[in-house]
Amino acid sequence: MEIENECKYPRFTHCRRCALLVLVALVTSWLKQVSRARRHRRDAVVLSGLDRNMLADIGLTRADLNDALSGAFWEDPTALLRERAIERRLYRVRPAQPLPDVENGFHRPPTGRPARQAI
Known about the structure:
It contains four helices and no strands. By secondary structure, the protein is mainly α.
């Protein structure tokens, strides 16, 4: 009695193997995304320990942190924080700076100290 080593349907075996590999790749990718989101959530929680002035220095508010951390656990909260900080940086109003005093085409920057006296 001979044992058959060949599969009756080689195409279907190949399809099942590919489907299994694709499924493993999808699950692995999803687990990596969840792991990255958890790591970023921990970083965002560290940011929640900063005071208002420190958050303002990086372009965030307490409300931004609350919005970012209120999402689902698999969502990356730092993506929203990055968007908000960039929006504030792009659309902030800069105060108009006065033109410097120019005498005869020469501008001497202020030094904050008295000029030396010639003897």
